[in-house]
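Throughout this chapter, every protein is written as a compact record of paired, labelled lines. An example of such a record is reproduced below:
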Amino acid sequence: MRADDAVPAGLRVGAAFTWRILVVAAGLALLVTMVILLRDIVVPFLIALLVCALLMPMSSFLQRHRWPKWTAVLSSLVALVLVIGGLALLVTQQIRSALPSLEHRLHHSASSFRTLLDSEPFGITAKDVNGWVSDGFDYLQAHAAAILSGFQAAGTGAVHALEGLFIIVFTTIFVLIDGPRIWGWVVRVFPRRARARIDVAGHAGWKTLTSFIRVQLVVAVTDALGVVIGALALQIPLALPIGVIVFIGAFVPVVGAIVAGGVAVVIALVFNGWVPALAMLGVVIVVQQLESHVLHPFLTGTAVKVHPLGVVLGVTAGTTLAGVVGAFFAVPFIATVNAMVVAAAKWRPGDPEPGSATDHGGVQS
């Protein structure tokens, strides 16, 4: 009797599954390592794909109305830049106009806070505070070299940010203009028998990504408007900057909503006191409940199928692996990969090829 015959069938099946799983895990680990090493290229490229998914409807709409492709693409990019620049200008203008009032409120809040600390049960006097400040200056002087190296690292990071912006702009332009041809080249890299399945998966993934971006955009705008209206009603300063923070935070599920809401409550606490801060907290909770129980179920529908547990675990894993960047990309990555896997699994030889929606330019697959 051969030695293999002595091994139970269940153990042989388990071993066969195990070594294949280990091979897949090793491949994924290698892929993650490469992404981390090339993060200065990969992250801007992924951001560019999200921007393309956001601008594609406008570019396609213009091209359907007989705009030249280059003109439609550049017009879409200019519109995005104007929106971002307009928001930045409005935020800067509001901060500048509110500075005198903010300084007065901050001075009053600081005086009240010192009075609170000086009373029981804290008993922290001005002498104690001055001592802590002196200790802080001593610490800064003793660690000046480390702080200087931190500033140098920040300068290097600024250079990388400019490089990333360059990659984002050019990737967005060329993907919007020549996306179908780029995707066709990617498909041809795979073996001939797998190309049709890969093409179907790509179409499904891109459709899910564009749906996700549109839903998140509507949700972010709605969240920002709700919080801004609440801040204005409570006469909390910096209402527009708070709205911008909420808008950006809405693109990071779970974590972004908590952080953005916390910023709004802290600003209300510092400049208006406890009662307005509690009222602002109530506004933030109401807005988040509307988002979770009304907006997402109504807007998402069957376009983006990601279970809430998958969202929480995905955001947690993304944060652990790549910090804020990982949290930002976790949900669109999970949604896109899920759609691609499902579409590839359902495809059968002889099924019609994905309908081409690329006649008006841009990446649709």
Summary: The longest helix spans residues 69-118. DSSP finds ten helices and no strands in the chain. Confidence is low (pLDDT under 50) at residues 356-365.
